[in-house]
Amino acid sequence: MATSDDDKTGTPAGGEGPRTGKRPSQHAYHHPAAGWGAAKSVTRVLLRERALIDGPRAIFKMNHENGGFDCPGCAWPDDTKGLKLDICENGIKHVTWEMTPKRARRELFAANTVSELATWTDFALEDTGRLTEPMVYNAETDHYEPITWQAAFDLIGSELRALDSPDEAAFYTSGRLGNEATFLYQLMAREFGTNNLPDCSNMCHEASGRALRASLGTGKGTADLADWESADALFVMGVNAASNAPRMLTALADAYRRGAQIVHVNPLIEAAATRTIVPHEFVDMALFKSVRTSTLNLQVRSGGDLALMRGIAKAVIEESATDPKALDREFIDRHTQGFEEYEALCAATPWEELERQSGLSRADILKAAEVYSRSDRTLISWCLGVSQHEHGVDTVREIVNVLLLRGNLGREGAGPSPVRGHSNVQGNRTCGVDHRPTPEFLDRLAAVCGIDPPREHGLDTVGTVEGMHRGTVKVFVGMGGNFAMAAPDTPYTAEGLRRCRLTVHVSTKLNRSHVVHGRKALILPCLGRTERDQQRGGLQSTSVEDSMSMVHLSLGMKRPASPHLLSEPAIIAGIARATLPDSAVPWEHYIEDYDRIRDTMAQALDGFEDFNRRVRLPLGFRLKQPARELVFLTPSGRAEFSTAPLPDSVPEGDFLILQTMRSHDQWNTTIYSDDDRYRGVKNLRTLVLMNAADMRARGITPGSTVDITATSRDGSERRLTGYRALRYDMPRGCAAGYMPEMNFLVGAADFSRQSDQPLMKNIKVRIAPSATGTGYGAGAGDAAQALTETRSHSQ
User: Fold this and answer.
1) In CATH, what number is assigned to the domain containing residue 121?
2) pLDDT tens column, 198-219
3) Could you tell me if residue 311 is left (phi over 0), alpha (psi between -120 and 50 degrees) or otherwise beta?
4) CA distances from 86 to 186, 244, 246, 672, 680 (A)
5) Does residue 307 lie within any of the structural domains?
6) Are the C-beta atoms of 550 and 54 separated by less than 8 Å?
7) Is the pLDDT of residue 793 over 70?
8) CB-CB contact of 627 with 409 (8 Å)
9) Which helix (H) or strand (E) holds 110?
10) Which uninterrupted H or E stretch holds 430?
11) Which end of the chain is more exposed for a tag (fewer CB within 10 A), N or C?
C-alpha cells in the first residue's frame, strides 16, 4: 500500500495514435446520435472482423425470442412489440468482437513469453482473437502452456483444498455470466465455505441497490419498458445513452414524439441528449430525419445531483402552499414515513446553497421542478454518474424522495429506473452472487441444495484487492471480465494479483489480467454468448435478466470458436467436483440439461417459481417487484423518506473533480479504437476534458500536454503525465477522462463509505501544464502504459 510520501507517476507512450498511426485531433460533433454514423461504423467493424456473413446473420438473431441470443453488451430490455432489428452499434461491435475469425492458439503462447506479452497494448492482446484451449503458466519458462481440462480442474481443486480457510479464496464475476452459471458459481463458493463473491456491481450500482432497499425494501428499480413508453416526464441522470445503452435512444425518440418532457442531467451534454436517427426507422434514415431526445439539459456539477433533486423537492413543497395538488398527500399519508422531517429539511436548505452545490441557477432548478410538478406520471432513470460518488446512496434515496412527493410509484409510467450497463449484472445479483447475502436467502439455499453455507459477510471488490495485498486472499478465480484493468488503482490491483498463489481467469479472449498473474495461473476459455452450447441433453439455452427485471432465454447460434471450449456452467461444475469431491450436489447431472439447474433455482430463489415454463413464454417473465405493488419490505412497512445532509460537491482551491467514463468506441475495458465519435475525438485516449475557463486559469492551451495529480485519502499522490487537455462544454470545477487509463488515479482507499464503491466519478485532482510539449504531436498512450511505468513505484 502506498504511504503518504509515495508519488506514483504514469506517463503515456509518445508518438502518434498508438494503433492508427494518425495524429490525434478534436472537432465539434453536431450530428444526431446513431443514424448513418452508426451504420458507417458498423460496416467498418464487419469488414475489419471479416464478418460480412456471420455478422448480418447475428444481427437478425440478436435480442429475439424463438432461437435468438441476448446481446452480450448492455442490459436494456428487448422490444416488446417484436421489432426485427432490436440492435445498436455497440451491440454489433461486441458481437463481431466475439465472433472474430482470429485465434489465440498455443503457437502464440509458445512464441511469446508472458513478460513479452505484458509489454503489448491491451488492444493488441485482445486482437489476437479467441482463446482455443486451457493454458497453464510455467514459471520456469515464463510461458503459458497447454493443459487438459481435467488437469486444470485438479490444480484448482488442490490449491483450494490446501488453503487454511475457505475465506482465503475470492470468486469474482463480471456481468457476462448467465443466470444458471451464476447460481452454480455462488453455490460452489458457499459449499466450499465462503461468501467472498465480489462482482462488477461492487463498482457500478452497489449504491443503487443499497439505497432502494433502504427506501423501498426492494434493491431494484420498479419501472419497466412499458413505463418508459407511457411516462409524461423522463429524467435521465448521469447516463450517456448513445454509448452505454444505445437502444434507449428509441425510447427517448418515441417519448419526444408523443409530447413527453425529457430532462437530461449530466455535467456533459452528450449526443444522446440532443437528437437521434433511429436506425431501424428506414424512412427517417433515408431522409436524414432526426428526432430530438430532450426538452431540457441541465449541466449539473459533478456530484451535484443530490442538490438538484432537493431543489426540485423544495420547489414542489413550496408550491403546495398555494396549490394543494402539488403534493400527493393521500399517497404520502398512506404509504410513506418521515415526510414531516423531510419537509422541514427542504425548508431549512437555502436556495443559495442548492445553487452552489448543484452548479445550476435557481431558475434552472425551477424549470426542472415545473416539469416534475406538471407531470402526472414521472420516471427517473440514472446510471454511474449518480452512483459512483461518495454520497451515491444518499443521492439515489433523494431521487426516491422526489418520486414519493407526487406518488410516482406503483403505477404506470412512473418510478425509479436504474440503467445497468452490462448484460446480466443484475441477474448475477438476483441469482446469488452477493458478498452480503441475507439470512433468508442462505436458509432457503441450505434447505434446497443440502449445503451449510457460511453466514459471515464476505469480501467485495475493494476488500478482495486489499486481501490479496495482505496475503489473506491467496486464490483468485475470475468468471469473465478483466479484473486487473477494471478495478481501481491499477498498479496496486496488479500487485495484489501477483501475490496470489493461484489466479484463474475464465475468458473468451486474452487480456491484461492474464499477464498480471499469480505464482500459478490458469486461462480457461469458454463459449461466447453467440455460440451453440451442446450438452448430453441437447442444445442448451441460458437465461439472463435485463435492467428492468425481465428474465428471458438466450440461445447461441454459431459454431464454437474451438472444439476445446467449455460452457461456463460446465467449467464451474468441473471446478466444483475437483474441489468438493464429496459434494452431494449433482454437478454432472446439472450440466447434462440446464433445465435441471432451473428446476433447483425455482425452489431456491424467490420469484423463480415455475421457472422452466415461464422463461419460455413470449418475452419471458418479469420478476415480482413488491414496491411496485406498494408492498414495502422496510422496517416500517412503508416507503421511507431520507434526510441526508447536503454534501459539499464544490472542489476547494485549485482542485477539480474528475470523472472517468467510456469513449464511444469501447465496451468496459475493451477498446475497439482510439476514436470517440460523439465527443469529436480521433486517435487519442490519454486525454482530459476541461472547462475553457478552468484551462485559462491554469495557463493550459487546448491540445497541450498536462500532468494530472490525484491526492488519495491515504495521503499518497499519483500522477499521470503527458495527457492532452481538450476544451469541452462542462461546468467549472469539473473534468473528465477515460477509464481504464484513469483508474490509476483512484487509490485503494478512495471508495465510498456509503456503498464501498470506488470513486470513479469523484476524483480530486490538480491539472497543470507539463514540460513534455504542446500541440497534438506527442500523441496517445495505452491503458497498460500506466501499469508498466508505475510498477516499480507500487511495491
Assistant:
1) 3.40.50.740
2) 999 899 899 999 999 999 999 9
3) alpha
4) 32, 15, 11, 22, 26
5) yes
6) no
7) no
8) yes
9) helix 106-111
10) helix 425-430
11) C
Q: How far is CA 300 from the centre of its chain?
A: 22
CB 511 within 8 A of CB 126: yes
**Do 454 and 409 reside in the same domain of the chain?**
no
At 160, the amino acid letter reads L
Q: What's at 605, amino acid-wise? A: L
Cell numbers that stand for 704 in this block: 497541450
Coil, helix or strand for 590?
helix
Cα separation values, 371 from 229, 262, 555, Å: 17, 9, 43
Question: Looking at the 3D structure of the chain, how many domains does it have?
Answer: 4
Which of 152-161, 282-291, 489-498, 671-680 has the lowest average pLDDT?
Answer: 282-291
779 pLDDT band, cuts 50/70/90, is very low
Instruction: Look at 484 and 284; give whichever has higher pLDDT.
Output: 484
How many Cβ atoms sit within 10 Å of the Cβ of residue 214? 18
List Cβ neighbours of 32 (8 Å cut-off, separation of 6 or more).
271, 274, 275, 276, 277, 290, 291
Same domain for 401 and 436, yes or no, is no
Domain ranges, residue 67: 33-98
- Grid cell digits, residue 385: 454518474
pLDDT at 60: 58
In a domain, 434, yes or no: yes
CB neighbour burial string for 324-337, b if at least 16 within 10 angstroms, e if fewer:
eebbbeebbeebbb
- Cis check for the bond before 560: say yes or no (omega within 30 of 0): no
Query: Mean per-residue pLDDT for 732-746?
Result: 95
Of 577, 558, 561, nearest in space to 569 by CA: 577
Give the full edge-to-edge strand order of the sheet including 33-34. 33-34, 275-277, 291-292
CA 61 to CA 73: how far, in whole Å?
14
Amino acid sitting at position 32:
P
Q: Which of 30-34, 497-501, 546-550, 614-618 has the lowest mean pLDDT?
A: 30-34
29: its cell numbers: 460533433
Vertex 675 angle, CA 84 and 487, to 5°: 90
Strand 261-265 relative to strand 763-769, pairing: unpaired
What backbone torsions phi and psi does residue 131 show, to the nearest 5 degrees? -70, 145
Convert 3-43 into a string of H (helix), E (strand) and C (coil).
CCCCEEEECCCCCCCCCCCCCCEECCCCCCEEHHHHHHHHH
Instruction: With respect to residue 460, please indicate whether it lies within any of the assigned structural domains.
Output: yes
Specify if 714 maps to a domain. yes
Measuring CA to CA, which residue among 254, 229, 212 is closest to residue 413? 229
Dist CA 666 CA 782 (whole Å): 13
439 forms bridges with which residues in the sheet? none
